[in-house]
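Annotated sample (chain length 374).
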Amino acid sequence: MSRRMSESASLKSFDSIPTMADVEATLGCVDMNQRYELVSGRLVSFAEVGHPCGHPVFCFLGLGCMRYYSIILEDLAFKHSLRIYCIDRPGVGMSQPAEPESWTPLRMAEIVEEMANGFNIQKFSLMGHSCGAIYAMACALRLKSRVVGTVWLMSPWVHLTLAKRMKWIKHVPTTLLKSQSTASLLYKSLSVGAKEPLSKSDPNILSYDREKLVKAMLQDNLAESLEGANNDLMVCLELYHSFGFSYKDVTLPVHVFWGTKDAVISREAVDWMEQRLPQCTLSVIDGGTHGLLWRADVVSKIFKGIASSWKLAEFERALTQRWSIKQLGLRKNQSFRGSTYSAGLQQAIQTSNIYEAQSTLYQSQQIFDDPDRF
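Output written by the structure step:
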């Protein structure tokens, strides 16, 4: 049974750029400040944005970023009929802390599994930004059978052996790292992301004044907890232990977006992912920085791809109910996913071309509806 504890307000929407008071009221609303009690008794805070009846997507944010960040996805998520769940990791926001020595990305997968079970979510999609990619990939590994379609990553963090620009930090004493101002680090992250240009073709990534939003999110971060940001840092730098798995272990399709002006993740790192992961597609964003989560064009492509994956899953389920394996003309133990038309759908989804995917779906449906086909 779902155990949610929320505030009394409701999510607001605006027809024009809101005032600072509007922004603060939105960040304080019910959907942005929910909590879930795990079986262990630990409380985890989370936010829900997008379409109230949309397909579920678990979104994992970057270093120390709490659930409020997800508000920038509200409009596009609603447009594509998606419901975004953004969970605060232990020690972030209102989520109770965990010992950094024992905290691993794979434990986040356990939390996601428990919450999905509690909300009766059988299937879901995954997306991650920056160090949130580690947790998205952990879920893709542990919860593979429940993931719909591709795992979508933006500016993904990688093992330090590959993150050439950050190797030096491995030699900085842990006590010194912990003493640095997490608030300053977070503010820099938010500010860099907020400077990403709006897309003229799809500007609905954010209807808020970005400077006001950054200020409000930072204030609310400070008002709650930033302890988990240090946990994230320890995970990223693998100071206590490794991730506990390799990205190469993930067999689901993965689509990576990386900007040419990313000052954190190198091109070599994402090239390694494209070459070594079983199924990986790399999209290079010319001029993009590390803050691709703020890019309407990038997020729109991801949401279109996720929506297409759900259409394919629903189509396959309908086919399974309507036709037997023999009628479909497939070999024993071969699914529709291995057919020629499924290959076209998968290609359309990988390229985020929802119109091509819909066209392929329509053509496939016509063939299966043809009585002379079999």
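Annotation: The chain has a mean pLDDT of 76.
Annotation: The two ends are 46 Å apart (CA to CA).
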